[in-house]
Design goal:
It is a single chain. Helix 1 packs antiparallel against helix 2. The protein is elongated and about 50 Å long. Helix content is 92%, strand content 0%. It has one domain. The longest helix is centred in the N-terminal third of the chain and has 30 residues, at 2-31. It has helices at 2-31, 35-64. By secondary structure, the chain is mainly alpha-helical. The chain contains two helices and no strands.
């Protein structure tokens, strides 16, 4: 099913971004953040929010069909 592959792609990107976010938080604790690092973190956080909402919509649509 096409939605299964889309779901897999979304989950893979979410996991990758979450990994980057954890690394960034660790870097911030041990070395502080530059403005560029903070901006990158914020962009990834926004992307994560959008991906999670997209995944929720996809799951909701599948449940209703």
């Amino acid at each position: 099913m096409a939605s299964d592959s889309k779901r897999a792609v979304l989950i893979a990107e979410i996991k990758e971004l979450q990994s980057f976010q954890m690394e960034s938080k660790r870097d911030a604790v041990f070395g502080g953040w530059t403005r560029a690092a903070e901006d990158a973190y914020d962009k990834r956080a926004n992307r994560l929010d959008r991906l999670i909402r997209e995944l929720e919509v996809l799951d909701r649509d599948e449940e209703s069909s």
